[in-house]
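Inverse folding, one chain.
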């Protein structure tokens, strides 16, 4: 009788130990915020996710993206910020690729570290990344920002550069704002691809490139006097 009782208790303990991890996984599940492009790319068989929580800085993110680009893979970025998992996509070409990519008919957004160029286009006027939502609203209020004959915005081409002197937390914070604000404006307009966006991870800042010098002044032209 004691043997039967001990066997029964042992089964209960084993069953409880097997169920506990599953329950913990359910309790510890974090909410996810994913971009439309990430969900589409994830369907591809050669898709790979880069977990940037384990990387040191922005430059390390670019190196991983370049490696996957050289392997002709689709890839996305995933990280945890404020108890939420963020998933999005980005682009950084293969260093060995000599082709030139051209992007026409886009809404360009330039971000350096945790600041972005204002919609007015003045390079000297940088605003905090937390104002990105207001900038997107300004873009959406301009009829020239829309695709021709369609109530859909031209894609946003985001030129992103973050100095390696900042840790990976700076990169995560900026990517969190980009993901949240674009998801917000798309949800307001009822379409996930109302305002598609692409992030170009760059090893230098376009905002640091000096403007070309002004053209030389035209020579003064004197009227020709007619001689009788």
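Residues assigned per position:
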């Amino acid at each position: 009788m004691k043997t039967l009782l001990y066997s029964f208790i042992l089964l209960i303990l084993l069953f409880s130990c097997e169920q506990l991890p599953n329950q913990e996984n359910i309790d510890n599940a974090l909410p996810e915020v994913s971009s439309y492009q990430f969900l589409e790319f994830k369907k591809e068989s050669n898709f790979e996710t880069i977990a940037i929580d384990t990387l040191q800085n922005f430059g390390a993110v670019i190196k991983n993206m370049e490696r996957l680009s050289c392997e002709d893979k689709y890839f996305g970025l995933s990280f945890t910020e404020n108890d939420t998992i963020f998933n999005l996509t980005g682009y950084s070409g293969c260093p060995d690729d000599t082709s030139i990519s051209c992007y026409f008919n886009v809404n360009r957004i330039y971000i350096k570290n945790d600041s972005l160029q204002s919609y007015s286009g003045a390079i000297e006027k940088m605003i905090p990344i937390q104002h990105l939502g207001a900038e997107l609203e300004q873009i959406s209020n301009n009829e020239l920002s829309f695709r021709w004959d369609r109530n859909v915005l031209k894609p946003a081409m985001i030129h992103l550069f973050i100095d390696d002197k900042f840790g990976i937390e700076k990169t995560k914070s900026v990517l969190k704002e980009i993901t949240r604000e674009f998801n917000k404006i798309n949800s307001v307009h009822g379409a996930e691809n109302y305002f598609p966006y692409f992030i170009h991870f760059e090893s230098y800042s376009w905002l640091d490139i000096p403007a070309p010098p002004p053209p030389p002044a035209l020579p003064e032209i004197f009227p020709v006097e007619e001689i009788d």
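The longest strand covers residues 74-81. Confidence is low (pLDDT under 50) at residues 1-27, 98-103.
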